[in-house]
UniProtKB/TrEMBL annotation, chains A, B, C, D:
E.C. code: 5.1.3.4
Gene it is expressed from: araD
UniProt-listed Pfam families: Aldolase_II (PF00596)
Family: Belongs to the aldolase class II family. AraD/FucA subfamily.
Organism, scientific name: Streptomyces thermolilacinus SPC6
Upper taxonomic lineage: Bacteria, Bacillati, Actinomycetota, Actinomycetes, Kitasatosporales
Protein's name according to its UniProt entry: L-ribulose-5-phosphate 4-epimerase
Amino acid sequence: MSESLSFGDLRREVLAANLRIPEAGLATLTWGNVSGVDRDAGVFVIKPSGVSYADLSAEDLVVVSLEDGRVVEGHLKPSTDTETHRCLYRAFPHIGGVTHTHSTHAVAFAQARRPIPVLGTTHADTFNGPVPVTEDLTAEQCARDYEYNTGQVIVALLEGDARRAEEVPGALVSRHGPFTWGATATASLENAIVCEAVAEMALHTLALYAPGGHPEPPRHLLDRHFTRKHGPDAYYGNPAPAAVR
Amino acid sequence: MSESLSFGDLRREVLAANLRIPEAGLATLTWGNVSGVDRDAGVFVIKPSGVSYADLSAEDLVVVSLEDGRVVEGHLKPSTDTETHRCLYRAFPHIGGVTHTHSTHAVAFAQARRPIPVLGTTHADTFNGPVPVTEDLTAEQCARDYEYNTGQVIVALLEGDARRAEEVPGALVSRHGPFTWGATATASLENAIVCEAVAEMALHTLALYAPGGHPEPPRHLLDRHFTRKHGPDAYYGNPAPAAVR
Amino acid sequence: MSESLSFGDLRREVLAANLRIPEAGLATLTWGNVSGVDRDAGVFVIKPSGVSYADLSAEDLVVVSLEDGRVVEGHLKPSTDTETHRCLYRAFPHIGGVTHTHSTHAVAFAQARRPIPVLGTTHADTFNGPVPVTEDLTAEQCARDYEYNTGQVIVALLEGDARRAEEVPGALVSRHGPFTWGATATASLENAIVCEAVAEMALHTLALYAPGGHPEPPRHLLDRHFTRKHGPDAYYGNPAPAAVR
Amino acid sequence: MSESLSFGDLRREVLAANLRIPEAGLATLTWGNVSGVDRDAGVFVIKPSGVSYADLSAEDLVVVSLEDGRVVEGHLKPSTDTETHRCLYRAFPHIGGVTHTHSTHAVAFAQARRPIPVLGTTHADTFNGPVPVTEDLTAEQCARDYEYNTGQVIVALLEGDARRAEEVPGALVSRHGPFTWGATATASLENAIVCEAVAEMALHTLALYAPGGHPEPPRHLLDRHFTRKHGPDAYYGNPAPAAVR
């Protein structure tokens, strides 16, 4: 990448996170996109529309204004989902990255309009509650500013509750698929990976339930797992190695 | 490839599209084939019968007459499905490529004789309606010109409606599997990839539906997605990089 | 491989076929084995027991007597399934190779004691009828010569009908898994790949069937597909490239 | 690895076993961990917490005291699951390795609180009985020493019966996932691979059962398979090649 390119570190992180979409088996063709934000500069960096992962370079990423959605830098059109990302960044000031995929099992829950239920610790490690499903967009919401409105139905679902958005860092857009977010572009991508994994596990678990009874997992177990990894008492993990530069 | 080989560009595109069949996980053994047409020359280029993808080269591809199905160029027999491709090229003058696979989930719908329903935007991005299933071929249709008749039951399904064939670029042959088409060989292959992806998503979605109720997705949502990518108001994607030469 | 090693060509083919088991996703750990026979020499060559595919070489393969099952050549113990292979070679004089795997979906049918039904052309291209399931072995059959008796329940199933064994080149051993065979080691391995593929397709097809009705595919369609590839009127495929030497 | 590093052979084995978790498709992100014990030295070696497999080296592994769980050697925090491993080593003196994963199908059984039933020989080759599910941990067990208590519910399940732990080398922690063990770190990892494979096969088998009837596999068949591979009359396998050095 040219040294003079602006937002170099952010571009590198967003590029790496986008390339993990196909690596993690979340992508068909060019579907899926990750963005990362620079709040001080008032911009976010996002994948261009319809470019294959194999061809993607940091220069191809598009820099977009948080304020009005205009392209600040870039020779390509940004992802068609750009306005959804922008809406989420504006509603949730604590997030640093957003990921959208059409991963198979998360899409199946979105299409069936079923939240992904909390069935075990794998889910609770990342999502402190079910991954919810939005309302269908109305004809009016589809006719105009469709992509921004896609963000709005997610925000409505969380009632603008930033804490809830932090504890459940993702949602399923009805009949469409998952959007996830996180403190960074990388974190949003990893939440997309977890969302797909727990969707697949939930699909199989539901198939295995004995008819009649499947009590919820005990709340104390789920809390334990979420707080092992998140918040002031977290004790999971080690300091990351020196960041990608 | 020898410089003097005819239809060099088309051969290269058809070869590349064929090699994407196993890459995309759509193939078992040598199953599956892609062709591309040169309408001016009145021929199409297709995979030879029963050759493994690892061994396939542009020279092995077979050039076949659109008019009568005879081999115009090639040292190998063309795919046994060649006459099905020829039938589709003749019925739908707007198409430039055809793909046939035995991809797992699309075959399951074909075997169950269920159209792949439109359950969300992933489907609507590519197929503006369910992927339909043909009638069973009759004993007469099987006894003689079986492969050409396989094309005929597809054409019958679409009632020769070229616009419908353009908006729903694929069909499931009953008890057999998917045929997809597109403006180019590459486009037909990508439609085969989408067909398999939406079949898998649909299988899981149907398993997740609550008994009793699964209303259709709202039409305005599906239309929005199809027209984002197709037709005069499309705004998805970027210009392709310089074509393979 | 040392030039002086006996049965060099057969060893090379059997090695290559064994290595395709993990490549084709049919293996967990060291499970699965392929053998090939030399009828003139009265021996077959088979994978050693419990050796990982990554470590396997042609020298490790074991040469076993068709007559009495004794090791003719080799520094390792042959597969524990060797006696099953030997039983099949003795019962079906037309076969040249045998493959056994624990591939996921074929095992599921074996465990459920359901034959893999003929639901479409993918199946009919290779198996001219359902892939049948054997009887459970009796306590006596388990107590003594267990592995040879495993072959015997397969032979019993086909009633020693060599033609049926040729047209349906495989069977599921009850609660165990698939054995397939063919004219060569390679053919038996490819039949194992098809067996797994059609088992997976069948599993999904059965899940998609509307309750109440799923008529059989028409016999004329299935016949057409089997005879396209097998017997005097076959027209599928091209001559193989020069054999591996 | 530095020559002077202590427990070098054990570290190398534990590292190799950990790297097989993602290779075998058992891992999402950094989930999963393998440990191996040195009983004479009174320590075990385990994966550090939250480190990605791609970055893992033998130096990163953590040496932990069997006696009190303190880190004896290492610059990183050990896996959060370390105390569960320690509990198992203390309860079952015959085991040399422990593996924990969140593999998809084993987790589905754990989440549905269903033991993985013995449906065929693939299961019986490794597990001489169903893979059982623990009780849910109580609020008290979650509040304090959660991870050690996770080991305790496994031990309770096996009633401290060392022989049973040897014949069924794994268990599902309710709503959580599988823990497996074995004579070595490698063996525990291979048991985790088998646990996932048989869980997937069981899921599909249960879907294929005809309503009403699915008699158990005959005991003599299952015994035959378990004793082919385990105990004094085992005849499966060959001596391992020279150990990794």
